[in-house]
Amino acid sequence: EAGVTQFPSHSVIEKGQTVTLRCDPISGHDNLYWYRRVMGKEIKFLLHFVKESKQDESGMPNNRFLAERTGGTYSTLKVQPAELEDSGVYFCASSQASGRLSEQFFGPGTRLTVL
Amino acid sequence: DAKTTQPTSMDCAEGRAANLPCNHSTISGNEYVYWYRQIHSQGPQYIIHGLKNNETNEMASLIITEDRKSSTLILPHATLRDTAVYYCIVRVGETGNQFYFGTGTSLTVIP
Predict the structure, then answer these.
(1) Buried b vs exposed e over A21-55: b needs ≥16 C-beta within 10 Å?
(2) Rounded Cα–Cα distance for residues B56 and B25 (Å)
(3) Choosing among B36, B91, B98, which should be mutated to test the A contact, i.e. which has the most A CBs within 10 A?
(4) Distance (Å, rounded) from C-alpha A23 to C-alpha B10?
(5) CB-based burial, B50-81: b 16+ in 10 Å, e otherwise
């Protein structure tokens, strides 16, 4: 069974440009999460999808970030325009169920560098 | 107000047991404690979880105190490949689906 995949693995862009990160969850997992670790800080939650609906987007830092999950399969996270402080590693995770007993499976992450 | 507190770093001799503590004194009564690890630049990897009873799987054992305010992850025979950052995780947020990672413990297994 394929795990969570993320594309690209690395992205280097200039400040002000746009970048789109993609996440493909494990097949059959309705729940999809985005997390990120910016330089020197902890891994922080960004948002949670249940199928195509945003269940919790309380961790999204500002309106430069837009997450979508059309059709309830893969998800994209767009940063527009990118700023220097957006540099970090963006992780995607998926789970079959939600709630207090649901293991989240993480992808390898996308390393974003904004110059 | 940290949801979990872990030592920043620990060393362990290869072949010995690694005991990684975590304080989660504000955990609610029906919340599980999860342990994940992150090896170098990979994504976090699930290890084990528990509610109140001690748990064991092929990777590790989890000891949870009776008051559930702390737990200890035990790697019974640490190998060099166990060198990683270990996270004790509880759920937070209104919907309870956010993983709170905290700072984690950087474990170095020494030959």
Answers:
(1) bebbbbeebbbbbbbbbbeeeebbbbbbbbeeeeb
(2) 22
(3) B98
(4) 33
(5) beeeebeeeebbbbbeeebebbbbbbeebeee
Structural tokens at position B33: 């404690």
**Contact status, residue B17 vs residue B75, Cβ threshold 8 Å:** yes
Task: Report chain A (115 residues): mean pLDDT per 10 consecutive residues.
Answer: 92 97 95 93 94 93 94 95 96 86 90 97
Residues of A in contact with B99 (CB under 8 A): 33, 35, 43, 45, 93, 104
For residue B62, give both structure tokens.
């989890």
State which residue of chain B sits closest to A92, comparing Cα positions. B43
The token pair at A69 is 């999950």
Closest CA to B47 of B26, B76, B69, B24: B76
Chain A nearest CA to B72, separation (Å) = 19
User: Searching chain B, which residue's CA lies closest to the CA of residue A94?
Assistant: B97
Q: Which amino acid is at B64?
A: I
